[in-house]
Design goal:
The complex is a heterodimer of chains A (154) and B (315).
Chain A (H helix, E strand, L loop, with lengths): L3 E7 L2 E7 L5 H8 L18 E4 L2 E4 L12 E3 L12 H8 L9 H14 L5 H8 L9 H13 L1
Parallel strand pairs in A: 1-5
Antiparallel strand pairs in A: 1-2, 3-4, 3-5
Helix pairs in contact in A: 2-5, 3-4
Chain B lengths: L6 E4 L3 H10 L4 E4 L5 H6 L7 E4 L9 E4 L2 E5 L4 H5 L2 H6 L1 H9 L3 H6 L2 H5 L12 H7 L27 H7 L3 E6 L2 E6 L19 E8 L4 E7 L10 E8 L2 E7 L6 E5 L4 H14 L10 H24 L1
Parallel strand pairs in B: 1-3, 2-3
Antiparallel strand pairs in B: 4-5, 5-8, 6-7, 6-8, 9-10, 10-11, 11-12
Helix pairs in contact in B: 5-9, 10-11
Classes of the chains: A alpha+beta (154), B alpha+beta (315).
Chain lengths: 154, 315
């Protein structure tokens, strides 16, 4: 099957690729661009482990075909830190012990980032509501909520 | 889980999409948010070889007021509709059902058109190809049996849109455009009543817009679910009250939502509708909750939405 030419920006880097038309964004990020922060878990859009930010909106990268993102801007967990300085959310997750096995962490942080972008001072219920999009099988939600609250006060 | 080999086309206009669909002779799905269709394609529930992306078609997106109707482009996301001031103010049943749909992240991607046209679901159907092969194909997969009800003559998969029941309670209409031109019909007319093929929409036809009479209403939506997020409804009830008349819709049991009108809201008519709901609801053991429980909950949720709305109307 003919490949498709796709151009997009990922973490401020311009990328041009030839991809299979049925390749998912998650596959492209992980297997072509070595951006392995976004994880594949359920692969059906239910768990949120593959969440990345597409034009400012959190999306399940496992449900998006790479040709769909032509001309768009993507941010992954790898694009959050500035130089060596971690993003406040990344710092807060480490300091509050909000990372257990770590598999859900990048999705949680990307979802939380879009929440803080649109609502810099969220209430606890806003945080719970936003991260209810993401599943943590270690069930460490309490510390995740605390970490997002801490990052919001920075 | 990888997608099967398929082609991807981005339609520039509605006509472009319809032409692409015709050229490919079926085996094609339209793609909007993809939150419902992509998992189905990954599970090999459909043998398609092309997805036609409708997201670049500007006229399918946005909310406008025209001739006393609020028109919502089919590609408008659930999140955008939920945050529209007139939807909150005029259509509380719809606001609540949008808010109860899946989770915020999927509301930001999923569209109202896709939500309405989602396929029916069954615990024995929404599974991987290997799982279904081992069990044997049922009616919905082109087989000759139902894997839930022995000796059944038809499919019992449930239509699980959160928003169709609330739109039905608001007397919504839909616009469709196909190779033979456009038509505007009542929302209830798109349902076939057959769980295997739940819609009357013609092949290649595109749902372009949803129209709701722009009148202030009182309303409520309730949904039975195990988790407060992500889950599809296991039973749902939407109720809208306007000028003393009520429209009640029960969803997630069988092929289509039921619709009941209450021309006057006295104790007898409400009781009568409760009885009708109990008799009409015939859930089977195809969800994670027992059928008997869902049958009881249909009536309870109906009572709850009516009570809530009447309490608010009298306050």
């Amino acid at each position: 099957m003919k490949t498709v030419k796709v151009k997009f920006t990922v973490n401020n880097d311009k990328v041009t690729l030839q991809v299979k038309p049925y390749e998912t964004l998650l596959e492209t990020l992980r297997e072509r661009l070595s951006l392995t922060g976004a994880k594949e878990a359920c692969s059906l859009g239910a768990c949120g482990a593959c969440t990345v930010i597409l034009n400012g909106i959190p999306v399940r990268s496992c449900l998006i075909l790479t040709p769909e993102v032509d001309g768009m801007k993507i941010t992954t967990i790898e694009g959050l830190k500035k130089g060596e300085k971690l993003h406040p959310l990344q710092k807060a997750f480490i300091e509050k012990g909000a990372v257990q096995c770590g598999f859900c962490t990048s999705g949680m942080i990307m979802t939380a980032k879009t929440l803080l972008d649109r609502n810099p001072k969220p209430k606890k219920e806003d945080i719970v509501r936003a991260i209810s999009s993401n599943t943590c099988r270690c069930t460490g939600y309490k510390k995740i909520v605390e970490a997002i609250e801490a990052a919001a006060t920075e | 889980m990888i997608l099967p080999r398929l082609m991807y086309k981005k339609a520039k206009s509605i006509n472009d999409a319809i032409q692409l669909f015709q050229k490919n002779n079926g085996n094609t799905f339209y793609l909007a948010g993809g939150t419902d269709i992509v998992p189905q394609v990954k599970l090999r529930l459909h043998a398609i070889d092309m997805l036609i992306d409708l997201k670049a078609i500007k006229e399918l997106t946005g909310i406008s007021v025209r001739d006393g109707w609020l028109s919502i482009g089919a590609n408008t996301t659930l999140f955008e509709i939920k945050n529209h001031s007139q939807v909150r103010e005029y259509f509380p049943a719809l606001f609540q059902s949008l808010d109860a749909t899946s989770c915020e992240t999927l509301q930001m991607r999923g569209t109202i058109g896709g939500n309405i046209l989602q396929n029916t679901r069954c615990l024995f159907y929404n599974k991987s190809l290997e799982w279904r092969k081992a069990k044997g194909f049922c009616f919905k997969m082109g087989g000759e049996t139902c894997n839930v009800v022995p000796n059944a003559k038809a499919c019992f998969a449930n239509y699980c849109s959160d928003n169709a029941p609330s739109l039905l309670s608001l007397s919504a209409e839909v616009s469709l455009l196909g190779i033979n031109g456009g038509r505007r019909i009542k929302l209830e007319e798109i349902f076939s009543g057959n769980s295997k093929t739940p819609f009357t929409i013609l092949q290649g036809e595109i749902l372009t817009a949803i129209h709701i009479p722009l009148r202030k209403t009182k309303g409520a939506y309730e949904k039975l679910r195990v988790r407060d997020s992500i889950d599809y409804p296991l039973v749902s009830a939407a109720f809208t009250l306007e000028n003393g008349k009520g429209l009640l819709s029960i969803g997630a049991i069988g092929a289509r939502p039921f619709l009941y009108s209450l021309d006057n809201m006295n104790e007898n008519t409400v009781q009568d509708v409760m009885e009708r709901i109990y008799n009409d609801s015939k859930p089977v053991a195809n969800t994670i909750l027992p059928a008997s429980y869902r049958k009881k909950m249909a009536r309870i949720l109906a009572k709850r939405v009516i009570t809530n709305v009447l309490r608010e109307a009298h306050s």
